[in-house]
Specification:
4 strands; 23% helix; globular
């Protein structure tokens, strides 16, 4: 049976660089990177290694809690599913802007 790798889930509001970070960690482009918010909607899994430790990294869509749009809610649900299976969570923010209520 293959070894179950730890799961690291990356979360944050839309367009803070979650997909870019996933691509860098994986070492190839598996996540779509766009300037338009809402491109990532589902969970995206990839295996990687960092400092000799193998793990699964999960890209999620941007989590918003102040938006009642059904699509935004489904993106949030997908992120919550990922969080439920996470061994570790990486909360990503955009350092080029101030902290927002969505953070």
């Amino acid at each position: 049976m293959p070894e179950k790798l730890p799961i690291v889930v990356i979360v944050g509001r839309p367009n803070v660089g979650k997909s870019t970070l996933v691509n860098r960690l994986i070492g190839r482009r598996i996540a779509v990177v766009e300037d338009t918010p809402g491109v990532t909607r589902d969970r995206l899994y990839g295996e990687t290694e960092w400092n000799g430790k193998r793990f699964t990294v999960v890209d999620t869509g941007g989590m918003l809690f102040s938006d009642e749009d059904p699509l935004v809610e489904q993106i949030r649900v997908q992120a919550e599913v990922a969080l439920a299976e996470a061994d570790a969570v990486l909360f990503l923010t955009d350092t080029t802007s101030s902290v927002t209520p969505d953070d």
